[in-house]
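During the reporting period the student researcher (J.K.) took over the structure-prediction task from the postdoctoral fellow and processed the backlog of single-chain submissions. One of the processed entries is reproduced below for the supervisory committee.
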Amino acid sequence: MRKISLLLMTASCCFVLSFSGCGSSGNTVVEAPPEVVEDQPAMEGMTDEEYNKAMEADMRQ
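J.K. obtained the following structure tokens:
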């Protein structure tokens, strides 16, 4: 009888603690996204078309 009551008390504690969590306040925090840096050219001294052609050539190798 003692084992059964101890088992029931342990199970009820686990059940109750599953609702409350591990001490969290329950408040969520929304973080702001990182700042966007203005678009920069793909490579200095190259146009976007030249850069894209170079990347396609590298992908084919």
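The committee noted the following: The radius of gyration is 30 Å.
J.K. will present the remaining backlog at the next meeting.
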